[in-house]
């Protein structure tokens, strides 16, 4: 009887789409993280089960939204658990498993490679294992270098042991675009520190452009040899960064609670640079987010929804999705039936995927805003900002997170979860594949 149950369970798992399996694995890790954070020696006695669940979900989805102060509520052990969850969520569970199996000399089978392919958002099994090895080298190199450089700032301020831990934690959190901080005010005290404003953004930009792009740059150091995806990501990221820095500086230049408090133009541009870079995915801040102008907050919402790169530590609809959507719009107005970029064509299947991804993302965000506006009396802009931050796994907040009730926390957890595993995973749950038996004559639908 037991063997029959085992066979039926194995058959069901084999027929379950990889995205569904990955979503279930992330959920299991979230629950395990919650249980670990609730251990007596993981917190200082003020953390509830709800707090532990929210913190675990925020860490594994590398979001950074918090309902309790990480620096105060959790012990060094608890902070270590959060850092481990961030690393797991940033690497991806299947990438982490593949690295462990590789270290033990255990071959990764075709079934596991299929899950790995889904976790890395790849279209084929080719070179997957070599990609995971590149990912390991990149993670170790940049997180170690980041921690060493940040220690030069944090050790003199906090002592050797505490300063080194702050440096390690922030390096992990930054590279994985998590936004968690072991400082109560976050990085606001370091708003104009040159080292912090170079190292932290560099870490989360590299983590946010995607492992595939990093691996491509690692192997092909010339622009002409890079894949179209890498070129789109690099150009899109650079364009969004430059535009966001300029807009933030223009909108906040005279705001006395943000840029207006700085006299130096260099300091204002430094703060603008950090906020513009962190908005799309990282979640750190060096100024008061609640003090932003409404127009700036709307710009932040748009950037958070765009997010970073596929197969990265970032959330959102992704930069490439946004660019393909723009290219499709331009092609429509120019009456072109094909899309192209950097001498390569973009197929109809990719355009259809973009449409599905954007549509599902908008539905998720709209439902999240609806639930929170129905259950809370928080200002609408704050709620919209919170939902966009959760979906983009960014972690920036205008202060609404701490005011969430249990319904609000559940909604934000669900949105963070969908933002991390990808809205298309939801589509796999909802979609059914079937071949049409009848073909109908073409009809005309009036649009616009």
Question: How would you characterize this protein structure?
Answer:
- The chain is an all-alpha fold.
- The chain has one domain (13-428).
- It contains 19 helices and two strands.
- The chain has helices spanning 2-14, 18-37, 49-60, 70-73, 76-91, 93-104, 110-119, 128-158, 160-175, 194-209, 211-219, 228-252, 265-279, 294-306, 319-333, 348-375, 380-391, 406-421, 423-430, and strands at residues 339-341, 344-346.
- The protein has a two-stranded antiparallel ribbon.
- A hairpin with a 2-residue loop joins strand 1 (339-341) and strand 2.
- Helix 16 (348-375) crosses helix 17 (380-391).
- The chain is globular.
- The termini are far apart.
- 44% of the residues are buried.
- The model has no long low-confidence stretch (mean pLDDT 83).
Short description:
It contains 19 helices and two strands. By secondary structure, the chain is mainly α.
Main beta sheet: 2 strands, antiparallel
Mean pLDDT: 83
SSE order: HHHHHHHHHHHHHHHEEHHHH
Side-by-side strand order of the widest sheet? 1-2
Record the SSE blueprint.
Layout: H1 2-14, H2 18-37, H3 49-60, H4 70-73, H5 76-91, H6 93-104, H7 110-119, H8 128-158, H9 160-175, H10 194-209, H11 211-219, H12 228-252, H13 265-279, H14 294-306, H15 319-333, E1 339-341, E2 344-346, H16 348-375, H17 380-391, H18 406-421, H19 423-430
Antiparallel strand pairs: 1-2
Helix pairs in contact: 2-3, 2-5, 2-7, 3-5, 3-18, 5-6, 5-9, 6-7, 8-9, 8-10, 8-11, 9-10, 10-11, 10-13, 11-12, 12-13, 12-14, 14-17, 15-16, 16-17, 16-18, 16-19, 17-18, 18-19
């Amino acid at each position: 009887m037991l063997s029959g149950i085992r066979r039926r369970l194995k058959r069901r798992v084999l027929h379950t789409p990889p995205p569904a399996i990955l979503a279930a694995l992330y959920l299991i890790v979230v629950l395990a993280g919650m249980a670990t954070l609730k251990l007596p020696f993981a917190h200082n006695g003020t953390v509830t089960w709800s707090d532990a669940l929210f913190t675990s979900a925020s860490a594994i989805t590398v979001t950074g939204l918090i309902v309790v102060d990480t620096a105060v509520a959790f012990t060094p052990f608890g902070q270590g658990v959060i850092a481990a969850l961030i690393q797991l969520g940033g690497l991806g569970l299947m990438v982490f498993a593949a690295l462990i199996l590789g270290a033990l000399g255990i071959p990764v089978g075709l079934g596991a490679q299929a899950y790995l392919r889904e976790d890395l958002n790849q279209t084929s099994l080719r070179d997957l294992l070599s990609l995971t090895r590149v990912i390991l080298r990149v993670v170790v190199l940049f997180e170690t270098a980041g921690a060493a450089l940040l220690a030069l700032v944090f050790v003199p301020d906090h002592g050797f042991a505490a300063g080194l831990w702050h440096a390690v934690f922030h390096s992990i959190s930054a590279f994985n675009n998590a936004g968690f901080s072991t400082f109560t005010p976050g990085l606001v005290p370091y708003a104009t520190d040159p080292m912090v404003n170079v190292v932290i953004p560099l870490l989360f930009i590299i983590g946010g452009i995607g492992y595939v792009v990093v691996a491509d740059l690692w192997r092909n150091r010339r622009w002409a040899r890079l894949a179209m995806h890498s070129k789109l990501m690099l150009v899109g990221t650079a364009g969004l960064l430059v535009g966001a820095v300029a807009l933030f500086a223009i909108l906040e230049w005279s705001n006395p609670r943000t840029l207006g408090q700085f006299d130096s133009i260099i300091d204002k541009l430094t703060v603008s640079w950090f906020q513009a870079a962190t908005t799309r995915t990282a979640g750190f801040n060096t100024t008061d987010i609640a003090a932003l102008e409404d127009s700036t907050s709307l710009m932040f919402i748009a950037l958070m929804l765009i997010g970073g790169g596929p197969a990265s530590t970032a959330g959102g609809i992704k930069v490439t999705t946004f660019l393909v959507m723009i290219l499709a719009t331009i092609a429509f107005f120019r009456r072109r039936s094909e899309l192209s970029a950097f001498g390569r064509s973009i197929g109809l299947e990719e355009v259809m995927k973009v449409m599905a991804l954007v549509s599902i993302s908008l539905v998720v965000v709209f439902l999240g805003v609806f639930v929170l506006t129905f259950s809370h009396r928080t200002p609408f802009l704050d709620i919209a900002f919170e939902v966009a931050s959760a979906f983009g796994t960014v972690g920036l907040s205008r202060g609404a997170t701490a005011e969430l009730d249990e319904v609000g926390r559940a909604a934000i957890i669900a949105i963070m979860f969908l933002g991390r595993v990808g809205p298309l995973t939801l589509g796999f749950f909802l979609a059914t594949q079937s071949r049409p038996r009848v073909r109908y004559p073409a009809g005309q639908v009036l649009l616009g």
